[in-house]
Design goal:
The protein contains 20 helices and six strands. The chain is mainly α. The strands form three sheets. Strands 1-2 form a two-stranded antiparallel sheet. Strands 3-4 form a two-stranded parallel sheet. The protein has a two-stranded antiparallel sheet with strand order 5-6. Helix 11 runs antiparallel to helix 12 and helix 11 packs parallel to helix 13. The longest helix is centred in the N-terminal third of the chain and has 37 residues.
Length: about 475
């Protein structure tokens, strides 16, 4: 007879290689707290409904808390032969308290048990990611606040386009992080559905109370279709999707940081503590952290693609393929959390070279649009003003000048509508100040964005606080 807890109909022990191939304990053991919390809630429900005795439920709860303590003290030995976290804990419980432990699995399957554990784990980790997003948002606002007067070239096609405030650039990433937070809040709501009680796929013949378990575990909703409950991995794919989008945003910031700290740009300098050197070239100061964040983005996107591919062809309900959801999401969680934490540190240690940025703006034609706007405000149709401004740029290139170097006579040769006030109009500070449309780069608009950002951070912190208050904490 098989030694497995499910082995009643088998006459042979499981091949050792098969054990190793199908075991998930090496990675799903991180869900031990969720597994124990779910089992305690299930035992309480079984006793409440008269399915097991109150005495057995108390023995189960005490035994599970003892196991929790053993795991947290590093005294618990996980056995690959027992396949997963659920069987490892149940076997230890049964060995410790006998038949009472063997009654714990009444009215549930590993299918709805693993779904419960994963829902609870994702729900908890969403909050952890949200906290780190908020810290990243704070870091972006801090950098923006410290550098509200720094003017830099804004780019399109990686070509200098118009003068903007460096703070405005940082706040663009803040806006991305705001959407990232919203996406993870959405993931939380889809993870906040309780699957336990669905059984293997069709429910159970026992008179269970699923609402009681949901209340015990602070779930907002309950699955109303047992097939869906055990086979749904939407919330995992949504987490991976939100994580991929977040990593794309971090990767774009990382790419710009890499460019900005190069000699060719020299807009920022990273802290020595956040860089590495070369084993051969002693002068090197490499932005390895930014490069790794950029590189790890592909890894997280890969987990999303792998999960989509795994689920796309599965019939209802549970299939062993779904075990493949764990390693990808666990790695994505670790990668996202580390990337957020380290990049907030990079930003806070970064030195912004305002003088270099300003010199870059002074030595380009990014004020050419303002030249055209000047003429349009004087009454010239914008398309004609655009052509005049283009001619001015061409003239400057031919004569090795910038627009600010032209004399009034040279301006008037281009158009008689130019007057003395053109010199003020094309100053970088004026170009920035005048872009005062809602969401623009003006000093006034950026100050308003920073104020609004503080309000968003406060609201997001409150959301994370409320979600964290719902997390189940079991003391050993």
């Amino acid at each position: 007879m098989s030694e497995k807890m499910w082995g009643g109909r088998f006459t042979k022990t499981t091949d050792e290689m098969i054990n190793d191939f199908q075991a998930s304990i090496d990675f799903d053991k991180r869900m031990y707290h969720e597994d124990i919390a779910g089992s305690i809630a299930h035992a309480r429900m079984l006793a409440k409904c008269g399915i097991i005795s109150k005495d057995d439920a108390e023995k189960i709860e005490k035994g599970l808390k003892d196991i929790l303590g053993q795991i947290e003290r590093g005294e618990f030995t996980f056995d690959v032969a027992l396949e997963d976290i659920h069987m490892n804990i149940e076997k230890r419980l049964t060995d410790a308290i006998g038949d009472a432990g063997a009654r714990l699995h009444t009215a549930r399957s590993r299918n709805d048990q693993v779904a419960l554990d994963t829902h609870m784990y994702v729900r908890r980790e969403v909050v952890a990611v949200e906290r780190l997003i908020v810290d990243m948002m704070n870091a972006l606002v801090e950098v923006a606040e410290k550098n509200q007067d720094a003017i830099m070239p804004g780019y399109t096609h990686l070509q200098r386009a118009q003068p903007i405030l460096f703070a405005h650039h940082m706040l663009a990433y803040f806006a991305m992080m705001t959407r990232d937070f919203e996406r993870f809040a959405g993931v939380y709501s889809r993870a906040d559905i309780m699957p336990l009680g669905a059984g293997a796929l069709a429910g159970t013949t026992f008179p269970i109370d699923r609402a009681f378990v949901a209340d015990e575990l602070n779930f907002g909703r309950i699955y109303h279709n047992s097939l869906d409950a055990v086979s749904d991995r939407d919330y995992i794919m949504e987490f991976l999707s939100a994580a991929s989008m977040l990593m794309v945003h971090l990767s774009r910031l990382a790419e710009e940081t890499i460019l900005w700290c190069s000699r060719e740009f020299s807009f920022v300098e990273l802290d020595d503590a956040h860089c590495t050197g070369s084993s051969m070239m002693p002068q090197k100061k490499n932005p390895d952290v930014s490069e790794l964040v950029r590189g790890k983005t592909g890894r997280v996107i890969g987990h999303l693609m792998a999960m989509f591919t795994t689920v796309k062809g599965l019939p209802l309900a549970y299939n062993k393929d779904l075990q493949e959801d764990k390693e990808g999401i666990f790695d994505a969680i670790d990668t996202v959390k580390f990337s957020l934490a380290v990049y907030a540190r990079i930003l806070r240690g970064m030195k912004v070279k305002k003088d270099v940025m300003k010199r870059a703006v002074d030595e380009d034609f990014s004020n050419a649009t303002d030249l055209a706007d000047y003429l349009a405000k004087k009454g010239m149709p914008f398309r004609k003003a655009h052509a005049v401004s283009g001619s001015a740029v061409h003239y400057c290139i031919e004569h090795h000048k910038w627009l600010e170097d032209l004399s009034l006579d040279e301006f008037k040769a281009l158009s008689p509508m130019f007057d003395e006030d053109i010199f003020e109009a094309i100053r970088p500070e004026t170009c920035v100040k005048n872009r005062n449309s809602l969401g623009g780069t003006s000093y006034t608009q950026v100050a308003a964005q920073i104020k609004a950002a503080r309000d968003i951070i406060a609201a997001d912190t409150k959301t994370a606080d409320e979600q964290e208050a719902k997390q189940i904490k079991i003391e050993a």
